[in-house]
Design a protein that fits this description.
elongated; 2 domains; two-stranded antiparallel sheet; single chain; about 300 residues; Rossmann fold; alpha/beta; 13 helices
């Protein structure tokens, strides 16, 4: 970020005027938006509210106040991280939103942005009746946002959330405790199904599925996320293969498996032509999520 840009911000304490300048700087520096916001204005607002310590539903009157010298210093520092280093905003504010709920995040976990939020919000209807959902397994929980959101959507259900990363499990544990769900959301270290011993009504996962070639095309913002949570061997399908081969053994008879594979959708279809995938559609955007029933997987 140019020093002149910093100077302008430092000399513009009024929130409304500052927001206009931040948006302009974000646009001029060609940032990638896709880690919680999709445009420069929303990104500017999120950053400003974090600096002010105000909630996201705060009154518009906040635009009329003046930033303190300390707040201006924090704002300039945060903008430098965002513009110069291309650090995604949620890693700067340590807050990401999923299914309308805030979660603590750091660079040890992916920033939530999965269309799974819509599925969980709709309680996986019409694919499985709510009354049949008593247990859920999430593979690769990261921040814990999906498992926690599932526990909130199914208040009578138990959730087992796994991850191979100790650092990620620390973040998930922090979020589970913040939502006071330690009695219903259990966290364990596991490489896919390695440490799983029970069967579940729903298995859900957003595993690593990005190939090395695709990784090289991603915007710089993605370089701050843990590579092991994004990239997988064998054209991005190594982990997906593990899940498909064994999932049937961990599903109850009426159970469903729901997996996000993003841009690897065509490779999955080509590799498993015999599987009757249901590729889900989303009202609020998203693609590359398939659903299979236990009976579809019994002959894997």
């Amino acid at each position: 970020m140019k020093s002149s840009d910093v100077s302008i911000i430092q000399n513009t304490p009024r929130v409304s005027e500052c927001l206009v300048l931040i948006e302009k700087i974000f646009k001029e520096n060609d940032l990638f938006f896709g880690h919680g916001t999709d445009n420069a204005w929303d990104e500017a607002v999120c950053l400003m509210l974090n600096v002010l310590g105000e909630p996201y539903d705060t009154d518009n009157d906040v635009q009329d106040i003046n930033l303190t010298e300390k707040q201006l210093k924090t704002l300039v520092s945060s903008m430098s991280k965002r513009v110069d280093q291309r650090i995604p905003l949620p890693y700067i504010t340590h807050t990401a939103w999923f299914m309308r709920h805030p979660f603590y995040v750091n660079s040890n976990v992916l920033i939530p942005r999965s269309p799974f939020a819509e599925l969980i919000l709709n309680q996986f209807s019409p694919w499985i009746p709510k009354k049949n959902v008593h247990s859920l397994l999430e593979i690769g929980t990261g921040s814990g946002c999906m498992g926690i959101s599932a526990a909130l959507a199914f208040p009578e259900a138990l959730v087992l959330a796994t991850d191979i990363s100790d650092d990620a499990l620390e973040v998930a544990d922090r979020n589970v405790n913040a939502y006071e769900l330690t009695d219903r959301v259990k966290l364990i270290k596991s490489d896919v199904f390695q440490s799983v011993t029970s069967k579940y009504d729903i298995i859900m996962t957003n595993p690593p599925y990005v190939s090395q070639g695709e990784m090289e095309t991603l915007p710089l913002e993605y370089s701050h996320e843990p590579v092991s949570a994004l990239q997988a061997d064998d054209s991005g399908l190594a982990i997906v293969d593990k899940i498909l081969i064994s999932a049937s053994h961990y599903l109850n008879d009426h159970g469903i498996l729901v997996v996000e594979v993003g841009n690897s959708q065509s490779q999955v279809i080509s590799r498993y032509p015999h599987l009757p995938f249901t590729w889900l559609e989303f009202e609020y955007g998203g693609h590359g999520v398939f659903l299979l029933y236990k009976s579809d997987l019994d002959n894997m």
